[in-house]
């Protein structure tokens, strides 16, 4: 068996350019609308700056270097990432400052990061355990490099991070014994807080981060002119920003916000979070807009009231909500007209198929295209190696590669 | 911003060869053990042949051309796929016969398939609607190509496929009006049958496929010497095979089985299905063995009884069951020793983290590696662009690319 050539088709990829999403691209395909994307980039940058904070968008959401570039061009301080491989991938695509909001574990991962630091990457990771601090200290001393670390604060029953001051003190002491490590600040993630008055708990957590960094600063153990204080996912970034701002961190510290999903927002989970943010601050100017949709064909109409869509778990996120039907593009209209179908409902999804409950006499045909929104964009991006940036007329403006 | 070079790291990829999974590869990484893989390839081929059936393994499980090649070398008749892009990807990697167990919808998808047929691909797709038949007939007539189609039979409340004989008759009549279409058989998928005596319903469904193809053959509407009759996912392949065998299809028809998950099997869902198959046939020789595992580091031990693993929804399937901890490789042993941890339990998974409930005084350290099994392999393969084929000592024998 010999492959007929080097030509390689990938799903969601236009076979040629210029391309129109509905005329040229084999569906299903994932599309990012350029107008709301551009709006979101500017909106969040302005929000962070308005609160005296730097923005380091979480890049794990999209893993799309073309979006990292737009985020940095919009003014982002750096890109947040979750793993060593994500870090070196971003660096290979021109990102010069990475905040890895995770522990760096395992020799091969440390080697990747050390090589990137040697090649000029400004890099930060978090620590929450003495053993890991010793490992990192020994490894980076061997490599004759300095590793910037932030102590992670966690919450009881949460994910990683120190639960109390005694754990922080033990870490500070161990870091001080490791000449290769530079303690440069404090990191947290408020997204693990659940139950009770969550907003109050998020504010209190933000204040704990502030108090901890001030205590460390007073102890003279921080090796950075303006130590970093960072938190915030995509749900509570307003409360973290306000807490940092009220504490006037901007003067002597580097407060950093790390939302990721804002870049394309969504149609349900973060749409709801945005409503809550607006309710907390009625004076807030503007808001994030959904930019990510997945387009797929009606594949079969086997029974009244049921449409099978050529769209599955391989193509779109299905947690916490199943894909949300938005618009139908009738096949006979050639993609020039669309009809609102937001009243329809996805009832089930398999690897390659979605089940749509539709009105019994719905105007729908096999070959029609449906546009779907998502609830939580992270688990849609990772289904695609190519995401199409489109304009409002569905012309493909840019093919964005992802690197999961 | 200029990327420093063409070098590109991907997750799960060894930085050099030869490589050892635990010493050289940045974890997490997905591994296929070669011994059970080779065993499974032979076992299923022998099973199909023993029942007088051809094997067209469902390739959507892995989308790994290296595994397609092994399946074909083991004797498979062709590869089953789910979409046009999967089809042309397989063809570009040397697969010459594809059974697309799905409807072909949309001009760009039809174009991909037509180009592949022109380039020599032997291709079959399924139809279940008159409109789609007309579209295909017109498109392939324009291209001056013949398209082989199978009529799909479905079940009430199921997915695609004709629900009754009247729908089949309407399709047969429409296909007869389309000179570009060749009706060559019948297709079904018994995996949608649920509730009641499922085994009996699967047998009855298999018999319905047999009766339908015989009726069509008697009507002289099938344009293939030995018409195709095909069904079977990975759960009920034994009952479909027996039903086809008992009907003595092998003499005048081409019975085709299409299991996909068998190639690497799993540690729970299909392990359970295998137990049921053995119970239905106590004389069955041998059985499938789990071959796919994902390896990841212990990242944090923030509280007694809780380990955070650097492994998330981006790395491993979590449906219908969360990842199954199998073995722990203590860091100080350098990967040479492993300890059974199958009593531990994953309690939660996020995009990049898994939460493990462990005994309060468990022997575990940050930097230890855990091997996890899965329940349903399809949604683990699609998390990886590279899957490592390893031997029992965890030496990397082959890097297998996937093409989702």
From TrEMBL, chains A, B:
<dbReference type="InterPro" id="IPR042208">
    <property type="entry name" value="D-ser_dehydrat-like_sf"/>
</dbReference>
<dbReference type="InterPro" id="IPR001608">
    <property type="entry name" value="Ala_racemase_N"/>
</dbReference>
<dbReference type="Pfam" id="PF14031">
    <property type="entry name" value="D-ser_dehydrat"/>
</dbReference>
<dbReference type="Pfam" id="PF01168">
    <property type="entry name" value="Ala_racemase_N"/>
</dbReference>
<dbReference type="InterPro" id="IPR026956">
    <property type="entry name" value="D-ser_dehydrat-like_dom"/>
</dbReference>
<dbReference type="GO" id="GO:0016829">
    <property type="term" value="F:lyase activity"/>
</dbReference>
<keyword id="KW-0456">Lyase</keyword>
<protein>
    <recommendedName>
        <fullName>D-serine dehydratase-like domain-containing protein</fullName>
    </recommendedName>
</protein>
<dbReference type="InterPro" id="IPR029066">
    <property type="entry name" value="PLP-binding_barrel"/>
</dbReference>
<comment type="similarity">
    <text>Belongs to the DSD1 family.</text>
</comment>
<dbReference type="InterPro" id="IPR051466">
    <property type="entry name" value="D-amino_acid_metab_enzyme"/>
</dbReference>
<feature type="domain" description="D-serine dehydratase-like">
    <location>
        <begin position="291"/>
        <end position="391"/>
    </location>
</feature>
